[in-house]
Design goal:
The chain is an all-alpha fold. It has a domain of 55 residues. It is elongated and about 45 Å long.
Length: 81
């Protein structure tokens, strides 16, 4: 009996990708929304905080888009070309 090889979510081979199911999409949406809320809650008092907020907002926005598109790969790298 051969075991099926498990692949991580950031699999490099698009041929093995399957769209996210409802639970996975919901989890990605929640994570993205939480990251966006965190980004907007950070103080904007210095360039360091603003830079951190932009990076966190990028992660949040790409996770929300990945949830909307059922994108199975790494949202930070692939959902927004």
């Amino acid at each position: 009996m051969m075991k099926e090889r498990m692949t991580p979510c950031c699999n490099d081979d698009p041929a093995n990708w399957r769209p996210l199911n409802g639970g996975q999409r919901r989890a990605r949406l929640i994570a993205g929304a939480a990251l966006l809320l965190l980004a907007f809650a950070l103080p904007s008092t210095s360039a360091g905080w603003i830079t951190l907020a932009i990076v966190i907002a990028w992660f949040g926005a790409t996770h929300v888009l990945a949830a909307a598109m059922a994108y199975p790969g790494c949202p930070e790298l692939g959902v927004v070309p």
